Amino acid sequence: MTTPSASAPQPNLPRHPVRVVAQRTGLSSHVLRAWERRYGVVAPTRTDGGQRLYSDADIERLSLLRTLTAAGGAISQLAQLPSDELSRMVREEPIRAPEAGPDGSAERWRASALQAIEALDAGALRHELGRGALALGVPHFLDQVVSPLLREVGTRWHDGRLGIAHEHLATAVVREVLGWVREAAETAATAPVLVVATPSNQWHEGGALLVAATAAAEGWRVAYLGANLPGLEIAGAALRTGARAVALSLIHPEDDPAVGDHLEALRRSLPAGVTLLVGGSAAPAYRSEVDAAQGQVVTDLAELRAVLQRLASRP
How do residues 301-310 score in pLDDT, each as one tens digit? Predict the structure, then answer.
């Protein structure tokens, strides 16, 4: 029996950290982690310090999967196939990139997602959003696909072009997809905590879901509470988790006279060092109430990222 020399190819030897794998495959670390957890696409080893290491064979398989999913294949089905079958599919089947719209590929994903919502096709919506996240990367996907998509759904619901069923289906699928984004985020145990919710009488949680996913992608630990929570419950969650900040989303209505009281009650119950952030399409309408509660209105996800980065660097 002969022993292979040190210079012989060893495609199954784990040696590459996730940073190298992301560069070579074009897959973000968020997607890599999600695919491993949900579908078991590869099984990297770990160092004593917990760092994931991938082999050359892992990288080749992941590259094949990215090519096929970008062309429209379902990862749930492709993940079950051996690598040689994936390689055959790439060689023999034509690979077509998605058509780009006038402002790039984000327009293509928004349009296809909206068509799925209009058809009340949850499966198609889930598929399109998943492919969009893979193709665009998390920040661009959130900014250019999910955020404008939810605004458009809200507008069409408000003026009667979409029904309650459409709005509920869109929210349910977005909740699922953005939950996947949060789960896939690499978050350190020592990362700061952000509590995310909507206050009492605010039932639309699309904005809160976006905030939670954005914060997770920025490396924050997120305590997502959902919609329509009293201020005391939100404050209690902040105290129990040791949160550095609380983020609220205000979508509709824009003229609720009770919002000011909710915000002030929350501020009184929060420790002085906890930052209160308020966003959502209705937030500017309540700017004076937010100011009175010593909070900060956040106008978009880019500003949210900047605020979170500043807060994360705070001692």
Answer: 999 999 999 9
| Mean pLDDT, range 113-130, rounded to an integer | 91
Contacts of residues 103-112 at CB distance under 8 Å and 24 or more positions apart, as own/partner, are: 103/144, 104/144, 105/135, 105/136, 106/132, 106/136, 106/140, 106/141, 106/144, 106/145, 109/135, 109/136, 109/141, 109/145, 110/144, 110/145, 110/148, 110/149, 110/152
- DSSP track, the chain: -PPPPTTS--TT---EEHHHHHHHH---HHHHHHHHHHH-----EE-TT--EEE-HHHHHHHHHHHHHHHTT--HHHHTTS-HHHHHHHHHHS---PPPPBTTBHHHHHHHHHHHHHHTT-HHHHHHHHHHHHHHH-HHHHIIIIIHHHHHHHHHHHHTTSS-HHHHHHHHHHHHHHHHHHHHHS---TTS-EEEEEEETT----HHHHHHHHHHHHTT-EEEEEEEEE-HHHHHHHHHHHT-SEEEEE--S-S--TTHHHHHHHHHHHS-TTSEEEEESTTGGGGHHHHHHTT-EE--SHHHHHHHHHHHHT--
* Structural contact between residues 14 and 44, judged by C-beta atoms closer than 8 angstroms: yes
pLDDT in tens, 85-101: 888 888 876 555 444 44
Range of the domain at 263: 188-312
Give the HSE-up count for residue 84: Cα atoms under 13 Å, Cβ half-sphere: 0
Residue owning tokens 């309540």? 286
The token pair that represents 302 in the structure block: 């880019």
Asked, for residue 100, whether it belongs to a domain, the answer is no
Assess whether 265 and 161 both reside in one domain: no
Look at residue 103 in the predicted model and tell me its pLDDT: 44
On whether residue 98 sits in a domain, the answer given is: no
